[in-house]
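Title: [Solved] DUF4325 domain-containing protein 3D structure

Original question kept below for reference.
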Amino acid sequence: MNKTINLKFSYPNERAVVGEKLGKQVFKKQIDAVMTEEDWEGNITIRFPDSVIIIGLSFWDEFAKLLLDKIGYTAVMDRVTFVTSSDKLTSDLYRDLI
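Solution (posted by the thread starter after getting help):
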């Protein structure tokens, strides 16, 4: 099964997402709250809005920690696809998972 989640932020043209609090809030309300156990076992695409060009380390650390706690590093690497406004930003997210 494939699940795609299009993240939404307070402002439609948000350029940057930062802060542990926001990372935790986004994960809990937009990811964990809408995923079923079956969804967690399948492929997951998490799409950031194209307007977001900066994903702060504080945001990402908290968001990624919760994701890794939920399904583990191997599952994230094997089954989760992040989509961002640029290839570099996307590769940075995977790099910063550790």
